[in-house]
Specification:
Oligomer: single chain
Largest sheet: none
Strand content: under 5%
Number of domains: 1
Radius of gyration: 20 Å
Number of strands: 0
Number of helices: 4
Amino acid sequence: MGMIAGFRDIMAMIGLALDGVGVLIVAVGALIGMARALLRRRDSIADRYRTLREDLGRAIVLGLEFLIAGDIIRSVVVDPTVINVVVLGLIVLIRTFLSMTLQLEVEGRWPWHRGVSAAPSSQTKSQ
């Protein structure tokens, strides 16, 4: 029984570490985005604002992925009760929705439309 408890403690620490990395990514991404926006003095305010939003959106999406990984490890490996798995499912759904909408906001397209261009090609306009 001691070996299982030790394994669960290690997994709990790994889950917590992933949460910390996720929060750190969001915080550092926000700082980098702000610095980039402030240093682009030649760009218009609208361009600087757009750049800040894109940088912050990317940082949040990446940070959410780490937070989801931490939740999965803690909920499934550390304490796999039915209630924890249901709560994990809800957390993953909410964070996945946030990730997808942030990606739509940043890139202008849904994640499953990677190869599709947002604007129609010039060939279809001329025909």
